[in-house]
Amino acid sequence: MHRVVQLVDIENEILKLRLQGLNSDTDIRLWRGVGDLFKPKFDTHQTWQLTREQTPRVHWFNAVWFRGATPKYSVITWLAVHDRLATGARVQRWSPQTDAHCVLCSGHLETREHLYFSCSYSKKIWRDLTASLMGSRYTEVWSSILEILAENRRSSTDCFFSDMLSNALFIPYGEREMEENMEKLTRPRRLC
Ligand SMILES: [Zn+2]
């Protein structure tokens, strides 16, 4: 017997149907699909479409999700767009005793903006990796970088360009994660 009332009701309905002739040939599992069509085969895409809350596509969609993108770079870029990276400033909001200084330079409050473009360490990485790639469009302004990435028209060249920029965006955060773990073991320590 189930403790959940709805499950008890469902079981009672099944029992009733069995008494009316339902047998193992007709009592089969069906998956709901688009248009309320029920099929025996499970379809991940259709189930995802039915269970998620659908909202209009954001203008920066192409900046993050594109053909040939490296998944871990896309996830970090996506978190950065939403300013949801576990930077010191954010972690300190729910854990006040946390040291919110940048672990890469130990000099400033570690926000998304600092981590990517104000920090002397990551600023150098960004410049060295992207200056020649971006040419006259070179920028260290987060919103401008996002706009450039969002221009991805999904050609091979655009996708390569976006993946390279995403890689450059990933490195400071990856370094930060590594450095934080190292710093826990070897405090005090400085990179620059
Ligand atoms: Zn820094």
UniProtKB/TrEMBL annotation:
Residues 42-126 form the Reverse transcriptase zinc-binding domain. It comes from the Eukaryota. This is Uncharacterized protein LOC130498782. It comes from Raphanus sativus.
